[in-house]
Amino acid sequence: MSNVAPNDPAAARGISRRTQSDIYRAGISGALPAVPIDAQKLDAAAEAALTKEAYAYIAGGAGGEATMRANRAAFDRWQVWPRPLHDVATRDLSVEFLGRTRPTPLLLAPLGVMELAHPEADLAVARAAASAGVPYAISNQASFPMERIAQAAPGAARLFQLYWSASDELNASLLGRAEASGCEAIVVTLDTHLLGWRTRDLDLAYLPFTRGMGIAQYTSDPVFQQLVKDRASAPAAGGDAVKVTPKTIAAGVSIARKGAALTGSRSLRDNLRSPLPRTAVETFLDVFSTPRLTWDDLANAREWTSLPIILKGIVHPDDAERAVDAGLDGVWISNHGGRQIDRSVPTLDVLPEIAEKVAGRVPVVFDSGVRGGADAAIALALGADLVALGRPYAYGLGIAGEAGVREVIRNVLAELDITLGLAGLTSAGELDRDALRAV
Ligand code: FNR
Question: For 388, phi and psi rounded to 5 degrees?
Answer without folding.
Answer: -105, 135
